[in-house]
Design brief:
92 residues; 55% helix
């Protein structure tokens, strides 16, 4: 069987998804540079914390980034478990 016909291993597939997530992380971070953040900030109604529009948007972008970061790390844990369950930091 040729290399092109071989089914990808779980490690290869996880690494591929991790790379895609990394690019999405970059795209999510770029949201903070949108022109909407230059417009005057305005207060939000209701029990919003943070209370301003821009602060709320930035907080949610940060949360989205952290969730992506966690997803990428979890796929690394799949790879780690496949390799025997020992962290590269514990192998030293």
């Amino acid at each position: 069987m040729t290399e092109a016909m071989r089914e990808a291993t779980i490690e290869e597939r996880c690494e591929s998804v991790r790379q895609k997530i990394k690019q999405i992380e970059v795209d999510v971070c770029a949201l903070t540079k949108c022109r909407e953040f230059v417009v005057e900030d305005s207060p939000l109604n209701g029990p919003n914390i943070p209370a301003s529009r821009n602060s709320n948007m930035l907080a949610n972008i940060t949360l989205a980034f952290r969730h992506l970061e966690d997803a990428r790390m979890r796929l690394g844990k799949v790879m780690q478990a496949f390799q025997g369950g020992v962290s590269i930091f514990d192998k030293k």
